[in-house]
């Protein structure tokens, strides 16, 4: 199964774009840049649009999700849209009681902590993803030659929320389950992998030109636990989309010691957070894979000369890699001045690749 002939990667709209060229290890016409969480709370137009509408509701209304995805592309001139959604949307669409509680994050009505709990999990039906397909199609139609990146939460991060029932600092619940009840952990991780994989596939088939797997919480794991208990599920999630031929990116926070293992699940690009310089990440990865990252979000409010020096340093370090897509080393903080992001994009585009 490959993408349809009318897909932006197949009909010529995005295949030669700076982003896709860099993701495939080529030499782009300009340095591609986009920002994780570029769509959302830092933009006044986003806050106005979302007024009185719950987070998950806004993700599941195709018109809203599409408009929110497009806002930062219009405002900042970034080289990609990142689909506006949430990693728990596949849970919601499968019928699981989950909500985003303001100031807290994803909260489940009933955590998943036993073999019986895992067996009782509903299957995510293909038809439930129709609002996602519709939103992606609407967005891609507006983006023209600018690629849309689809995304999904990696199975560990999704399963960690399911076990804890809410965000956690140390993820003791899932880390304990891996060792105390490995069969239940594996069944849960596989469920999460299939849900995330189908969610990502729906986005790619509907028109997204690349896919990114976010592992927000993998940094809480040691390498041995990651390789044994997590990497197989991440690979399984990506198995749902490999045959489509779109570039695949893997990103985690606090994952400097896991980069090689994260690449080895089978991706084209490795995202690097702000903790590790890109030239060192490239060295660890054997100089063989395009990198994405890694401007420190903490520097966005700094004086311009400080931020500019930092951005130029990130570009110089990124030049060590086979190709480099500029991004933040995590998401855009909500209090970021949008004008600063636009200025950063202009700076990056002004520097010859």
Query: What share of residues is helical?
Result: 40-55%
> Over the alpha carbons, how many angstroms does the gyration radius reach?
19 Å
**Sheet with the most strands: spatial strand order:** 1-4-5-6-7-8-9
**Strand content of the residues, in percent?**
5-15%
Q: Could you state the order of secondary-structure elements as H and E? A: HHHHEHEEHHEHHHEHEHEHEHEH
Overall 3D form: globular
Briefly note the structural class of the backbone: alpha/beta
Number of helices: 15
**How many beta-strand segments?**
9
Q: What low-confidence regions span 5 or more consecutive residues with pLDDT below 50? A: none
Largest sheet: 7 strands, parallel
Average pLDDT confidence is 97
Distance between the termini: 35 Å
Highlighted features:
353 residues; alpha/beta; seven-stranded parallel sheet; 15 helices; 45% helix; globular
Structural overview:
The protein has 353 residues and is α/β, with parallel strands linked by helices. It is built from 15 helices and nine strands. Helix 7 packs across helix 10 (182-206) and helix 8 crosses helix 9 (172-180). It is globular, with a radius of gyration of 19 Å. The protein starts with 17 loop residues before the first helix and ends with a helix.
Summarize the helices and strands and which ones pair or pack.
Blueprint: H1 18-23, H2 44-50, H3 55-60, H4 62-76, E1 81-82, H5 89-94, E2 98-101, E3 105-108, H6 115-119, H7 130-143, E4 148-153, H8 155-164, H9 172-180, H10 182-206, E5 210-215, H11 223-239, E6 248-252, H12 259-263, E7 269-271, H13 278-284, E8 291-295, H14 304-318, E9 324-328, H15 338-350
Parallel strand pairs: 1-4, 4-5, 5-6, 6-7, 7-8, 8-9
Antiparallel strand pairs: 2-3
Helix pairs in contact: 4-7, 7-10, 8-9, 8-10, 9-10, 10-11, 13-14, 14-15
